Amino acid sequence: MIRYKITDKDRETQYQNMLRATDNYNAENINQVGNLKASKIRSLVNAYIIMETYKNKSKVAYAGEQFPNEILFPFDIRPLNIESMAAFFARSDAIEKFLKVTEENNLARDICTNIRSSFGIALANCYPTPDIIMVNNHPCDCLAKLAYIMADFYDKPYLALDVPNYLNDDSISYLVKQFKSIMKDIERLTNIKYNEEKFTKVIDYSNQAKEYFINTVKLTEKYRLPEISRELYEIFATNPWGLKEAVDICKTLYEEAFELSKKLDSNEKWKKVLWVGQLPNHTFEIIEYLEKHVEIIYWGALMDSNMYLLDKEEPFKSLAIRSILYMWNTDRFKKSITDVYNRFKMDGIIIINAWGCRNLQGLSQMLRVFATENNIKYLTIDADYMDRNNYAFSHVKNRIDAFLEII
Amino acid sequence: MITVGIDIGSLSTKSAILNDKKEILAYDVVFTGGNNRQSAEITFNNVLKKAGLNKSEIDLVVTTGYGRENVPFSDKHVSEITCHAKGIHLLKPHIRTILDIGGQDSKAILIDKDGNVINFMMNDKCAAGCGRFLEIISKALNVKLEDLGDISMQATSAARISSMCTVFAETEVVSLVAVGTPIPNIVKGVHESIVSRATSLLKTVGITEPVAMSGGVAKNKGIIKSLEDMLNMTVEVTDYPQVMGAIGAAFIGQLIGK
């Protein structure tokens, strides 16, 4: 069996590799992230954090999607979601180089492209070497497996959180025990002492940002604010909870949403569709095309876990509850979608099947049945935001048009 | 009021003219070829000539099909899913489920009593199961496309065509010919392969009887027979299955005109 190993672990080299790979991407053009000030701040903060992870002095943890980063910040560890970073690379032509590397290394094209491109970036040695790899098993087990393999690539310690599917006292207590144990493991592996005062502050930042986030969601419920809705999703995808900067981003977004809403008529009627699944770059042709006809509300940003505030008195318990809420449990999934669908007075649902994503494809079947039973108009789109070999707009445009005609 | 519907498909471009009594005055079919704008113009002129009309007598042109947005003289364009639904509804208003197999995709469409689309599913990832597939297979077997239906009726059994890919299926068919499998059995196997995929598509939207089939492939009686056998129900076909999208587009023109 071939075992891949990253031999040159110097982050400066990896940084140069990354720059070379993305040579055509104009990262300095901040206006391409959109018109909102909040989007520009988020983009700059992201860029800063990514740059910091390439510094040899930084403590870096690869952290899975929606990992409770609040437990890392008290150790001054910088979380890096390598899957999100692959999505960032997908906005440049660099992704094709990374995907080519995976093919040259015998990785099947049927694998989820998010995972495959993360492999490609690692194989091209463009990620910064981690100090530690942290992972949770949601939203999919593939991410946990990817993290495990990355630990092998870089020969680094691997810590995993096993998040239960159902929310009850036993599952919360099971996860709280894991949090307490993992904090000791981080101390041991990084030689950094846990700082409770910092942790309290992090929880406070997390809640402050979340309160602005929730209030912004309420505005999008009442007014047509497409850019704000999209930015809510981007913030959720960035998983910045616990960072001081997240408070600034969410506060700015709320203020912008509030100012925009004053100029709008809440009775203005546009057809609304609920987008369930991953969101590609806002310039992705499906989004651009749909936005000409309907208002898109992104379910990902509106999940119960995103509306949940942490309890300062019992931070681990509330982190456990939030983590479980984030699990794509079928019953909660249906309940949450029904709730959002009704609250936002939607006209239909668009379900996105990302290439190779077993998780979404399984859920989308459930969602189709659920939509049919509830007389909800729906559309399923197969798409691949990263590998253009797996998708063409002309394939899906016809069904989008038919769906728009139906609603 | 006189309306024209033009359906610019991947293989053929169809047109139909309707008057305000919803009567089909004429219809026409041409190959799409490499220039769908040109094929739309050709069929438009053909259908006008067949109906004995000139352009100035046409009130509205509605286009559909993959090339629907590429016709300069179109007054409105509508997806072929809606057009097939309306077309079938005009001619057979009792129909509730439609299977449309065109040149490069297939669609299962569920409609209500007014011909509105309730739900639909499309297979457009591969030409296997579509008109293009039959065209390629007929070439591989050196038989005429329009003869496939009759040939399949002579089959003693159906050869198993397992592939879900047009190119691989062609290889499979060539291999079956090489080992001496009778052509009718191969053709019947091809039909069953297409119908098997189509029935899965129909079941995903939930089959509500009565069922009809539209699209060029519905002209193949071998396909209709296999479909009826597999669904164990009658499948209705109009006199103009290939032109249903164009008829539906012209009918939508009439509805807009109201």
Strands ordered across the widest β-sheet of chain A? 2-1-3-4
Query: What is the CA–CA distance across the termini of chain A?
Result: 53 Å
Helices of chain A, by number, come to 15
CATH class of the domain at 11-196 in chain A: Alpha Beta
CATH level-four homologous superfamily name of the largest domain in chain B: ATPase, nucleotide binding domain
What's the shape of chain A?
Answer: globular
- The whole-number mean of residue pLDDT values of chain A reads 90
Low-pLDDT ranges of chain A:
none
What is the number of independent domains of chain B? 2
C-alpha end-to-end distance of chain B:
9 Å
* Quaternary assembly: heterodimer
Largest sheet: number of strands, sense, barrel closure of chain B: 5 strands, mixed
Please count the beta strands of chain B (DSSP E, at least 2 residues each).
Answer: 10
The greatest interface between two protein chains, and residues involved on each side, is: A-B, 12 and 17 residues
Q: Which sequence of SSEs, written as H and E, runs from N to C of chain B?
A: EEEHEEHEEEHHHHEHEH
Q: Could you give the order of the helices and strands of chain A?
A: HHEEHHHEHEHHHHEHEHHEHEH
Architecture of the largest domain in chain B, CATH level 2?
2-Layer Sandwich
Strand arrangement across the biggest beta sheet of chain B: 3-2-1-4-5
Percentage of β-strand residues of chain A:
5-15%
CATH topology (fold) name of the domain at 11-196 in chain A = Rossmann fold
Task: Describe the secondary structure blueprint for this structure.
The complex is a heterodimer of chains A (407) and B (258).
Chain A: H1 11-21, H2 37-53, E1 59-63, E2 77-80, H3 82-89, H4 94-104, H5 113-123, E3 132-136, H6 141-154, E4 158-161, H7 169-190, H8 196-222, H9 226-238, H10 244-262, E5 272-276, H11 285-291, E6 295-298, H12 315-326, H13 330-343, E7 348-354, H14 358-373, E8 378-383, H15 393-406
Parallel strand pairs in A: 1-2, 1-3, 3-4, 5-6, 5-7, 7-8
Helix pairs in contact in A: 2-9, 2-10, 3-5, 4-5, 5-6, 7-12, 8-9, 8-10, 9-10
Chain B: E1 3-8, E2 12-18, E3 24-31, H1 36-51, E4 60-64, E5 76-77, H2 80-91, E6 97-101, E7 106-111, E8 117-123, H3 131-141, H4 148-153, H5 166-178, H6 183-205, E9 211-214, H7 221-231, E10 235-237, H8 244-257
Parallel strand pairs in B: 1-4, 4-5, 6-9, 9-10
Antiparallel strand pairs in B: 1-2, 2-3, 6-7, 7-8
Helix pairs in contact in B: 2-8, 3-5, 3-6, 6-7
Organism (chain B): Paramaledivibacter caminithermalis (strain DSM 15212 / CIP 107654 / DViRD3)
Protein name (chain B): Benzoyl-CoA reductase, bcr type, subunit A/benzoyl-CoA reductase, bcr type, subunit D,TIGR02261
Pfam family, one (chain B): BcrAD_BadFG
